[in-house]
């Protein structure tokens, strides 16, 4: 197969070139002077950018949440990912307290079998774990471990466990990803709000203010410094939190930050609107000045990756709440948190390119290369160098796409971006050399995705 006539953008820069893909589904050559050979299929990429497929390192598919389940499973979610230009995901497997982490890992692997694109797993720990478990995870290709500082009743671990897991992970070439919010303080704010009768969706944001995110980021950076561990801050949502990321980076701590499209585009005022339950996510949506600072952080390299935290729920489920009450949730603490986004990430970050904030190279680095490198997928994923998997997107900067729910492929009945039209969408998406999306339509196969065991982590920061 030859993808010809486009502008290739990857780790080696931007140039007019063709990409030759071999029968094994790997990149064979990238050069300006490749000509169609006998029996070879030609894909015309004229007017388009040819980039490595997107790598989304923060998704929640098939996930049970209270009495509910997210609306996308691994089949429907990865199908939508492919349509939007993402060809690899890393989903979060969770070992709840008292569970055997390796058993949780195997359960998530079973759930993920129908995936249409390649996939990997992070492992979330909710209590102290023996060293043996970390070694076994790494043997299975799981090299990143998530810890929560929020949700004390179900997920959070204390600082002693965070520091301990950081030391053990670092010693084995792994890294730690952390949900940074001061969970205990937030619990107090939530309890007081409910007791005072402040029960509306906007209280979700008021009880999770950005200083409590920033404080947790600073604490994680301090612990990462002690443990000499790479710490990856998931879903950095605020200017205050970003300032703490920068402060740590400037003194040489390897803290990397992820943000998500919802924090780049959506305002907290949506939590006071008519569809407020559809906009609950954690951390909550913030304000314009936060978005300005996050975009600057992307352009300046302080933020390392954009992932989605894709975690969709049906509108009715949101209104019944995590206790699934037929008469509706009693207060904001029962609204399931999370937004759909696995399909729309590349397009929503591309807006930064059309706005003149990011270069095309920045966009590729943030959405594909950096997440691949950080999480041990490099150079198989996130690269178009010879020998890499031919996960490739032909990105048409003129193609228009509505972000209304009924014009997207995600299995969910509302869109956070209803009414918005994008200019910039994939013309063609390949997964290991096979077409998975053409002109906005899924053409791949259920179960064609493979589990990708990950390598241990590069010691040096990428940016
Ligand atoms: Mn998440």
Query: What percentage of residues falls in helices of 4 or more residues?
Result: 25-40%
Distance between the termini: 33 Å
CATH architecture grouping of the largest domain:
Alpha-Beta Barrel
- Which distinct ligands sit in these coordinates? manganese (II) ion
Q: How many H/I helical runs?
A: 13
Structural class: alpha/beta
CATH third-level topology of the largest domain: TIM Barrel
Number of strands: 19
How many domains make up the coordinates? 2
Structure in words:
It is built from 13 helices and 19 strands. It is an alpha/beta fold. Strands 1, 2, 3, 4, 5, 16, 17, 18 and 19 form a nine-stranded mixed beta sheet that branches. Strands 6-9-10-11-12-13-14-15 form an eight-stranded parallel beta sheet. The model has no long low-confidence stretch (mean pLDDT 97). It has two domains: 2-51 and 381-442, Urease, subunit C, domain 1; 53-365, Alpha-Beta Barrel (TIM Barrel), CATH 3.20.20.140. Manganese (II) ion binds next to loops.
Summarize this structure briefly:
The chain is of the alpha/beta class and 463 residues long.
Write the layout of secondary structure elements.
Layout: E1 2-10, E2 13-21, E3 27-31, E4 42-44, E5 49-52, E6 54-59, E7 64-65, E8 68-69, H1 74-84, E9 86-95, H2 101-112, E10 118-125, H3 131-139, E11 144-148, H4 159-171, E12 175-179, H5 183-195, H6 202-206, H7 210-227, E13 231-233, H8 239-250, E14 255-259, H9 261-265, H10 288-300, E15 305-306, H11 315-320, H12 345-354, H13 360-374, E16 392-402, E17 421-431, E18 434-438, E19 441-442
Parallel strand pairs: 1-4, 1-5, 6-9, 9-10, 10-11, 11-12, 12-13, 13-14, 14-15
Antiparallel strand pairs: 1-2, 2-3, 5-16, 7-8, 16-17, 17-18, 18-19
Bound molecules: manganese (II) ion.
